[in-house]
Write a structure and sequence with these properties.
This protein is an alpha+beta fold and 288 residues long. It has seven helices and ten strands. The chain folds into two domains: 33 residues, no CATH class; 245 residues, Urate Oxidase, CATH 3.10.270.10. 27% of the residues are buried.
Amino acid sequence: MRSHPGEAAILGCPLDHRSPSLTIATPHGSDLPDVQSAPDSRAISIDRVGVSDARPPATIVDVDGSSQSVSATFKMTVALPSDVKGTHMSRFLEVLGTHHQQLGPGRMDAFMKDLRKTLGADQAQVELSFPWFVRKAAPISGGIGLLEYGVRIEVEIGAGNRIEEVLEVTAPATSLCPCSKEISEYGAHNQRCELSARVTCSEPVGIAPLGERIESAASCEVYPVLKRPDEKFVTEAAFDNPKFVEDIIRDLALGMDADERIRAYRITSENFESIHGHNAWAEISRTK
C-alpha cells in the first residue's frame, strides 16, 4: 500500500533523505529548524530588513481623538546583527495585527515597543501612509464635502525604547502668479498646487491642524464643493493674494517657526503650472 506523500511528515518521519532532522512532531512544527536564527559568517550587519507594501485596514486616531478607518500601507523593518542569518518576517504581521486599530500621531509607542520585543531587535522602524479626509465647508454656500490629505508617519525605536516620530501631511491648494497679475491688463494665471510639511515635534501635532496650516500658506484654499457664489469668492480671493512658490514656502516656514512644539521640519511647495510644461518647486528644511 502506497502512503500519501504527506504521511511521513505527519508521522514524524524524515521529509527528505537529505534533511533527516527536518521533522514535524507537533501541529505547529515546533521541532522544525529555525533557519532565520542560524548564524551567518559574512560579518555584515543589515541596517533595515523586514516587510513592505503591507496593506491591512487600519484605524487611525488623530490627536483630538477623532478616528477614521483607512486603507494604510506599511513598511516595517528591524536592524539585523552581522552574525544572524535572517529576521522573522511573519512576526511583523502578527504584531501589526494586534495594533492596527489604534495608531496615529503620538499613538505609536505600544506598537513600536511590541515590534522591537517580538523581533528581538536593537532597533525597529515603521513607516505608514494613508489618506485622511476632513469635512470642509464651502466659503459662501456652506456646502460640505470631504477634502483628502496625504499622511505619512515614520517612527523609529532604539536602545532604551527611545522613540522618534515624524509626521508628514500633504495638502492641495491654489496659487496665483504675482508677475502674471502685475503685467496683464486683466486676469492672471493660476493653478492647483501641493504643499507638504514633514515635522518632528516635542509633543504630538494633529493631522487636521497641520493640514489647515499648510493650506493657509497658499493664495487660496481648495474646496470639494463649490457653488457659483463660492467659485466667485475663491477666484477673487486668489487674485487678491498672489504668491510665487517662493512666497508660499516662506509663509509656511513662518508658521513652522512660530510653533514651539515643532523641533525640526522640511516643507515643500509645488505649483502645477498652467502655462508651462513644467512645475515650480521649493523646499525649506530647518532644525530649531
